[in-house]
Give the backbone structure.
Amino acid sequence: MPGIIETKRLTKIYRMGDIELAALRGVDLVIEPGEFVAVMGASGSGKSTLMNLLGCLDEPTSGEYRLDGLDVAALDRDEYADIRNQKIGFVFQGFNLLARTSALENVELPLLYDRARRIDDPLRAARDALERVGLGDRFDHEPNQLSGGEQQRVAIARALVNQPSIVLADEPTGNLDSRTSIEIMEIFQELNGRGITIILVTHEHDIAHYAGRIIEMRDGVIVGDAPVRDRRDAAIDVAALRRSGGEGKAARP
Amino acid sequence: MIGSFQFKNLMKTAFRSILKNRMRSFLTSLGIIIGVAAVIVMVGIGEGAQKQIQDELASLGTDVMMVFPGASRFGGVSRGAGSWSPFTLSEVEKIREKATALRALSPVVRAGGQVIGGGKNWSTSTYGVDPEYFVARNWDVALGEIFSTRDVINRKKVAILGKTVADELYPSGNPIGERIRIRNVPFVVIGVLKPKGQSSMGQDQDDIIIAPTNTVMYRLQGHPRIDFLIASARSSAEVDAAQEQLRNILREMRKLQDEDADNFNIRTQADLVETAAETARMLTLLLASIAGVSLVVGGIGIMNIMLVSVTERTREIGIRLSIGARSVDVLTQFVTEAVVLSLIGGAIGIALSFAAAFFVNRLSSLEMIINPGTVVLVCFVCVGVGVFFGWYPARKAASLNPVEALRYE
Ligand SMILES: Nc1ncnc2c1ncn2[C@@H]1O[C@H](COP(=O)(O)OP(=O)(O)OP(=O)(O)O)[C@@H](O)[C@H]1O
Ligand SMILES: [Mg+2]
């Protein structure tokens, strides 16, 4: 089966004046459609850099990258933008919502730039996306009127609204408490269940164990790549948490 | 490419950003507001002046012409040397016989000086004319009567007062039959003229005394010199023909050779008004371009604030880029914002200029006309200013790198 994401010897070198910093030093990676991958690794190991390249936010210094069979290196700036719009949904640690803009309008945003016009009713699509992340009653709330978890769910709805095949999440639970984190993971697992490929960066092992595969990075290269044997089900954990009165962390096995 | 959903969002974003910093936006548009108001007011006053001139042309009749002694290069009333050759009374008589295209012809003799009457003092100009003057100028008395040709020949000391002079000397009462002294010469008032109001040059046309030609010549001036002639054609359509005939008669009478230039110069009322209107037009253009400079200054203000806005909103730009905005989308967004800002300034400026027009027309003798064409043009100029000065900041926003923009604190 061909990978939805295939990279070969992908490198990224940042130049600051005459200092060169190799953030990625040859990443070979194949991710198949429908996978749920967690990327782990120490701070500065190049996780975000890799996500930016995979998400067509930035160009690699060298190497090959095929996205859905498309040779990304051959594309121009506008085509990069279109890929971000059509194929990829981003979720960031800091939510990155527009301030003073309602949840609904934030979610509508990607549809503004949908040149293919695959969605004829933007308002409905935005409502549906918000309902899917459980925010059916928060359409008109602005980011500063929402909790961190709710903001992140708005961001996920925004990532989903254009029906991408890949969702890239860079430490989506980094700013959230553990209970809210598991609720977010429940959403990701649910999306993954519908066939969306998910790549998620995290520092926390228990978060990574909601994924199906864990990639370990160090100094700009992949040093470990293994399926998760004891994969957890976020829905069950959330239910358990609810039963125990919503207190503290999820019960660990 | 832009659908209604996109357009609505573009506007919403622009207004949100502008309203977020109300004071800043207002101060930024101030240059545009002042520029737009100034341009419309200047053009409006210029057009008002032109209209006043044209109205005057209509009221005077287009059939009037004046004949000045001296070549035209000295200007109508210039006292230049050289071919200066004043008209004489016998010339006037000869022209009257021959000039069939003329309806009326009168010499005009000017005398300044003090008038005393009704126990008051007033300084005005006295004009000596023939009765045909009133025909030529299409002017009649409101009270009393006009003197006759016999009065002219007899140098009778009678005077017709302009409205202003009558009001000054006899504020309450009928001046007919009153005795006045012009330069110490006694006259009897036999009439008061109908008011004519201000001329386009701002002169009070009613500040005048009119007396018989010969009276002014011999009793006031003491020498038989005519300052100029005033005439009217049989109709406005015949002005050119009458002018040509008059010219030929004068050249023949003065025995000018073919190579000689005219030693007189005929100006039709239309010429005079055209000259005045042209002057007014030039002035309008000059004032409007000076006012236009403030539009440029306003545009620079917009550019400045847009640059600030782009920096402040780097993160927002990063977010938009990350979800798939193309450079052109970001460019459009910021140019739109600049245009909206400029148009808001323009709208306020237009409103201000309408208020100015109301007060100018109410409270001053100037007339200000705002024509819709100017307003539409100004709106286009505002769009142009917005695009032109918004382009560079928008370009800057559009060329940001998505990753760097997202990392911007
Ligand atoms: N724009 C940049 N300019 C220069 N150096 C950069 C830039 N972005 C990242 N780096 C460097 O590249 C290396 C990898 O950074 P990256 O952000 O990918 O790490 P990370 O694995 O995401 O770390 P963290 O877990 O702290 O988020 C780091 O050493 C970082 O300093
Ligand atoms: Mg990172």
